[in-house]
Amino acid sequence: MPKRALVEHRPLLLAGVIAAFAHYFLSDNPIGGIWLILLKGAGVGSLAIYALRRAPGLDGFIVAAALAISALADMALELWFEVGGGLFALSHCVAIALYLRNRRENPSFSQNLLGLTLLIAVPALSYLLSNNPLIAVYSVTLGAMAAAAWTSRFPRYRVGIGAILFVISDWLIFSRMGPYDLGQLPDLAIWPLYFAGQLMIATGVVQTLRGEEPVP
């Protein structure tokens, strides 16, 4: 069967992409704070609903929960940074549980090495960028999430790379707090990198789980 258009096959993914684009281009537009907050949450929130509807079993519920908590964190960041950070740490813990339930059998030495590197380097570099011990504590969960994603059985060049894009977007946020001035780069790149990472994670996990469903 030929592939159908995205709007026909995956309307929730399309809705998420549209919401993400709209938030990116309207973030400085005075349409009203509450509407921008809701629009921001709608991006990853649509991915969460997509995962809940499309992915089977407990693993599908877990990835949907991780995405839903991230959507809440996106909105909370606009009101209270610490609450948003706490919700993101929770979403990382939920994602870690998913990836540990789905560890890759017999990973190669290079896969294990990169996983270990992410586990150690992510919090270390996060601290150097932010000069904030609380950011380093949060980034322990961020690094563990990326390491677990990379060493899971889900496709590395979708889920693994998606997790790394998530890390890079957070590093750009942290760079605003410390001694490093990256100019306009954080403003331009944080949201696209973050949403692209979440989109890759959602579709990679869902398509893997759906591919394992018995054919009726």
From TrEMBL:
InterPro entries in alphabetical order: TMEM86B-like
Transmembrane segments: 12-27, 33-51, 58-77, 83-100, 112-129, 135-152, 159-177, 189-209
Coiled-coil intervals, chain numbering: none
Record keywords, A-Z: Membrane, Transmembrane, Transmembrane helix
GO cellular component term of the entry, any: membrane
Main localisation: membrane
Domain of life the protein comes from: Bacteria
Location(s) in or outside the cell: Membrane
GO molecular function terms noted in the UniProt entry: hydrolase activity
Membrane topology value: Multi-pass membrane protein
Family, as annotated: Belongs to the TMEM86 family.
Name the UniProt record assigns to this protein: Lysoplasmalogenase
Originating organism: Erythrobacter longus
